[in-house]
Amino acid sequence: MGKASTVRREVTVGDVAREANVSKATAARALGDYGAVSDDMRERVHSAAERLGYRPNELARTMSTGRSHTIGMIVGDIQNPFFAQATRGAADVINAAGFDLILSNSDETAHSERKAISVQLAKQVDGLLVAPASSLDASSLAAVTEAGRPLVLFDRTVADLAVDAVIASNRTGAFELTRLLTSAGHRRIAFLSTLQHDGDYRPGEVLLSSSVADRVAGFEKAIALAGAEGTAIIRLGAPRDDVERVAAELLTGSEPATAIVASDSLIALSVYRVAQSLGLQIPRDLSLVTFDDADWTALAGPGITVIAQPIHAIGAEAARILLRRIAGDGSEPVLRVLDQTLIERGSVAPPRSST
Amino acid sequence: MGKASTVRREVTVGDVAREANVSKATAARALGDYGAVSDDMRERVHSAAERLGYRPNELARTMSTGRSHTIGMIVGDIQNPFFAQATRGAADVINAAGFDLILSNSDETAHSERKAISVQLAKQVDGLLVAPASSLDASSLAAVTEAGRPLVLFDRTVADLAVDAVIASNRTGAFELTRLLTSAGHRRIAFLSTLQHDGDYRPGEVLLSSSVADRVAGFEKAIALAGAEGTAIIRLGAPRDDVERVAAELLTGSEPATAIVASDSLIALSVYRVAQSLGLQIPRDLSLVTFDDADWTALAGPGITVIAQPIHAIGAEAARILLRRIAGDGSEPVLRVLDQTLIERGSVAPPRSST
DNA sequence: GTTAGGATTGAGACCGGTCTCAGCGGGTCT
DNA sequence: AGACCCGCTGAGACCGGTCTCAATCCTAAC
Asked: How far is B225 from chain A (nearest CA, A)?
């Protein structure tokens, strides 16, 4: 009472049929644009629908067809510009295909990811786009394939999981970036990442994120080539909200790093801030390179040298593959590796001590 | 054929009921945790569900209950950090309440917005969160209220539409920001926005976006207080991808602006870049202030003075209000205005000529 | 003049849940 | 002992679409 008054009964196919004096089946055919309907029937139904203000109920349609025209997408954190761009890329192709996007943040935890997947499956998404929180543990993702729904990973792959994935050429990118540093004469080079990790990194160790693992591999290769294994530092597990502290440690010890490879632009920003507050000038006192061509990198002092990932394209391509799978493509899973491009600006110079 | 083999029949309540040797109704009650069920019945049903790998179908539930536990959100562009943050704010409270988020980008066009709203309504969202593309034309939004679903606006309001809205104190913010400039002695101050607009701005004109309108109002008030009406410039309609050109015009004429109020951080970044390429030093040659405490503003040279909006809170509060409406709160629509906070850094100095 | 066949239309089952209502056994009140 | 209430269970309708199948009508072919 009082509550019921606000509940507007929706206009249904049945209502339209009655109004147009045709059967429900015919009305549905005319409205849904399927099957065979004569022109005047179609006309009659449509004008009746117009008169009543009919709005189709997608969910009811999904119930009988089994297709929800909805894609689930799970990112680490939509506030991270990387994910925002990838999401936009995916949204663009998905919308163009008449699908919609349900978005969840995993905060890079297996628990949230598992929960998000479960909810999205329950919502009958036609497929999922996931940046997996863990490249090692495929258990939460398994639910997707078990449910028979296509899954496409982006940004990182997962071992032992035969699904499509779209990633960037992180290994090569990290190699190029690091090479710039070693060529300039740097030896005390640090690789800095926020990837969740306990204690020190041990060479050869398997990492939680394949993209970081690839970057580390590229980094290590360049380091090895320069014979700088002894002085290079790989620092993982920096807390997202306290990267600054870790960066400061790297830059202040008795043997401070003279160059840093930041694993993403958010980290690079923190390093930049710390360098500033420490009175270190880039590139004179510190060389800094990073992944992702964030908007500020061109603006900072001399400009930061970066390796740019085709982020929008990663999201778009992942979505395209997913749509193809949904359409029934049953071919072997593919691994798409998109090229990164080096953008040299002015943040690399020879180390001071070596000059 | 061949296609059919991949279609896994879902396990339904009926299947579980059969397995547990109970009626469908009882199984549903045990699984859905409603109604009265004895302990051993519940146990029997749950173990049967476990055995079969039962997964509830949210859509079917929505069909009969009418609640989808899904919220639609329409933003201008998820790549814009403002919207990314607001989305995260909304997602956090929405997920905490057991709801999900469907996201669409409107690209600030009425057409895309209308389409997105229509699709989301068809998907039976329980309510909508919208940053309206137009503060003047309520027609696309009307569909939402007509459908009887609650709607909460954020970032901007819409005239003649009695719905909740959560915005920031843009007028006051712009006033404070501009005041800083006039107090420093500036008179040739430009307000720069990308808000879609044809030709020159005429004082008193009604603008497409209430938030920009409020900012302009605050700007004008401060300008009037300083008696600088004759030399102040309000420049709207700068194309998003060509703000730089417009900024350059502002800074290079015979009477270049000595200070700029950027309507958002993306614009400020462009201005900053142009200033750099023009060899203008901030704040010596140009004072620059902006809305939004973007990550790079603290880093740029002396640091940009900004007025920070509580963006995450705007999204979160809008979501909270929406959930309350969905829960049945029928009180009068509210307009929540969240305070902005001034963060003074070093981008304001007296104009050169006046020194 | 039939008849096969294509085009339309209507009736009703179905998708997978929820929910109302009736039925049943047992305890309590009088 | 009879009325009544309560807890629990089962049967079946319902949400709003789609889709199968049979019935009907019409036209072209034999």
From this structure: 34
Residue B295 in contact with residue A269, Cβ under 8 Å?
yes
Residue A287 corresponds to which tokens in the numbers above? 């060389």
Q: What is the largest CA-CA distance in chain A?
A: 90
Over pLDDT 70: what percentage of chain A?
96
Q: What pLDDT is recorded for position B353?
A: 62
- Selected residue of B82, B295, B297, B329 to mutate for chain A interface (largest A Cβ count, 10 A): B295
Best CATH choice for the domain A70-168+311-338 from the list 3.40.50.2300, 2.40.10.10, 3.30.1050.10, 2.60.120.10: 3.40.50.2300
Give the model's pLDDT for residue A35.
85
pLDDT of residue B298: 86
The CATH architecture one would assign to domain A13-65 is Orthogonal Bundle (1.10)
- Fold of the domain built from segment(s) A170-310+341-354: Rossmann fold (3.40.50)
Q: How confident is the model at residue A355 (pLDDT cuts 50, 70, 90)?
A: very low
Cα gap A151→A277, rounded to integer Å: 45
pLDDT, tens only, A12-52:
999 999 999 999 999 999 999 888 899 989 999 999 999 99
- Distance between CA B27 and CA B17 in Å, rounded? 5
Question: Which residue ranges in chain B fall short of pLDDT 50?
Answer: 1-7, 354-355
- The confidence score (pLDDT) of residue B354 equals 44
State both tokens at B97.
Answer: 């309440």
Near-strand D residues (CB closer than 7 A): A 9-14, 24-25, 28, 31-32, 34-35, 54-57, 60-61, 63-65; B 22-26, 29, 35-38, 40-41, 60, 63-64
- Report pLDDT for A10: 84
Domain spans of chain A, in order of start: 13-65, 70-168+311-338, 170-310+341-354
d(CA A22, C1' C5) / Å: 25
Q: Do B123 and A100 touch (CB under 8 A)?
A: yes
Q: Copy the structure tokens of residue A294.
A: 């964030």
Distance CA A308, CA A290 (A): 9
Nucleotide with the nearest C1' to B34 CA: C18
